[in-house]
Amino acid sequence: MTKPALAGPPAKKAKAAKAAVADPNNPIADILTAAEWDVIFPHRFNPDDRTGAGTLPTTPAKDFYSYANFVEACRRMAQIKLVLERRCGTDYYRITRTDKATGVTTVMRTDPSFNDPTWANLAIVKETLDYATFANEGDINTRKRELMAFLANISQETTGGWPTAPGGQFAWGLYFREEQGYEGTTNIGYRVDHAIYPPAPGKSYHGRGPIQLSYNYNYGQASEFLFGDKNILLATPEKVIQDGVIAFETGIWFWMTPQYPKPSCHDVMIPGKWTPTPAEAAGGIKAGFGTTVNIINGGVECGGATENNKVLSRIAHFQRYTGIKQVSMELNGGNNTANLGCANMKRFAMDPAECSRITALTFTKPTSYTIATTSLSPIAIEVSKNDPSNEVTQIVININGQRFTGTTAQWTPPAYGKFKAYAAGARAGKDSVTTTVDLVIWNDVSFEGCTNLPAWQAKDYTTVGNIVLYNGSIYRNKWWAGAAALPSAADPWELLGACSGGTGNQLPVVNITAPANNASYNAPANITISANATDADGRIAKVEFFNGATKLGETTTAPYNFTWSSVAAGNYTITAKATDDKGGSRTSAAVTVAVNGTNPGGGCGSIAVWDATKAYTGGQQAVYSGKIYKAKWWTQGDRPDQNTGSGKAWEYVGDCGAAARSFNEPTHIGDDNNQTINVYPNPATGSSIQVTVDGTPGEQLQISLLNIKTGQPILRQVQTLGVKGQAIQLNISQVPAGTWILNIQHGQSKKISTAKIVRVQ
């Protein structure tokens, strides 16, 4: 059963050869005839024979898996061409579809993260995919071999054969149209929540067609590629068993389309077209038939010490078909079946070094493309190059018509506004590598140039400090802001003021005068917070005081003071936010204070007493009333003696004394549902980490990186698991140095897995 993961396409290693078809109405006429089709599939699906007698359909209308339907599917698919653009090191991509018959070109898909500023500096991997190259690239033997490999794999997905079957076990390919257990029933399955490809009410997305297309996110994706409309197969998935042409189209789509980090099955069957990365080669992955199995169903069938029986069946189908066509099974001309499997072959994983192998330019200064300033002074511009092959001979920067040679420049904007910054790197005998960004220069006091600020979008804002326009007003997010968080609804957004094109409100100025930064108190503490707030073009309407994201109180009159009473032991981050009479606001610099507590009952050796204000992660220990407890996942404020047991945050370890031991936290952490996180590397020094987590294929995971003190997310993404133990790449290039909590919420079990991440810069 094919259950491929939703993912983006990678780059091909060689340019696709142009298709050269003698008969455009039958692209496979010269490599497979109708008579040979009947020899290969003598027992294919027949609605009048579901008992295993194995007779052919009596009419074309009943011949679902007919040669004519397959030829028509090849002809239709040959009319589709794609341009696939992907941010290197990620599966975030933009896909442009061209219908060659009509000439209509549309951007059919853009992942929200593709244009997110967090990833905007990552190079774009671009490739063109022409479905006309299916079984039509390379010499005649290469074309025959690829087609036989395709037919062998779809035969295993739909086989009705058994060891003593008439005609032989491997003559029963294409016997089933849909997954056994669903055929002829009203059973509903393979439905998962998905933001882009949501399941339709009452519809089942079980395995259908020759490739056994499964799950709503694959039906939607296939529909988008085939028809330019995701809703056709999402709304009517049964089309895949009602129309034999569409059924074969879904199989060709899956075979031809790369799903990063996997290449396409097509690519790995063309000699010299695809080369594994060093890590893939070390994991036993190589071009050829075995890797097509790894791509299709590697999570179930590949990687064992011995060959899986299903893989042996795929090889046997392949051996039979290549024998009929008199073509070798191996790409090098060999016929050793021992070289065709995927035992001991690792799964495909994200390549953290991919970006480093791509020649690319990146704007590294300014660090933000929205630049707030009160004067039109010079701005430092810097471009870095990644040039592993030493191809770039010269770099030119052009901003608003001003040309600079080299990787650095000092550019003075002529006015507040929006300007295009362009950099090009010349390469001998090749196209230049280029990169482009839009620089927005605005005055954050007078608001001049504010009309050029980016408009708010219904997407996740994963980093703090984004400036956006919404309904004519300027907002800044104070922490992670989800797609549903409208700026006008306050938290996590704060209003800076109205944008009137240059005559707007001047924001107030506020700073905390007491307590001093790093001041310390003894619990229970009474902390008086004082702030100074002024407004140049109006009056102060109120001053609010915060501990992290939690509001403590407010005052509307000077002097702006607030007393925070009975503060428990812990470390706190205090800010003041001043709002003026026009609604504009500004937040002060933070002040950190420490409240030292007493230890009721005392600690236990090196294990400290439980602190109600501290965030504990899975595996950390604490003492409460002379007993040692261990956190099973991230927890804060849950008293250990009241939160121990199944489904609760703490686990009782033992009494103080001989049982006392200090916990040395590993990077392999799980919760009481045995859903384990592995993080590599940790501590992290680069721009990304690889997270491997247990879960159910098709399950959505919400992955967050939380501030260890406030619990507020600085980064968040949603990932759909393709296989259990899937490696997930997390870009942390914008995460400051420090200690963070990795929090993963499982969509089906609702369990939360956590790990502590140390970011080193």
What can you see in these coordinates?
By secondary structure, the protein is an alpha+beta fold. Among the domains are: 359-442, Immunoglobulins (Immunoglobulin-like, Sandwich); 450-498, Ribbon (Seminal Fluid Protein  PDC-109 (Domain B)); 509-596, Immunoglobulin-like, CATH 2.60.40; 668-759, Immunoglobulin-like, CATH 2.60.40. It has eleven helices and 37 strands. Strands 17, 19, 20, 22, 23 and 24 form a six-stranded mixed beta sheet that branches. A five-stranded mixed beta sheet has the order 6-12-11-8-9, with no helix packed on it. A four-stranded antiparallel beta sheet has the order 3-2-1-4, with helices on one face. The model is unreliable at 1-21 and 658-675 (pLDDT under 50).
Class by SSE composition? alpha+beta
The fraction of residues assigned to DSSP E strands is: 25-35%
Largest sheet: 6 strands, mixed
How many H/I helices? 11
Report Rg.
31 Å
Quickly list its features.
761 residues; alpha+beta; Immunoglobulin-like; five-stranded mixed sheet; globular
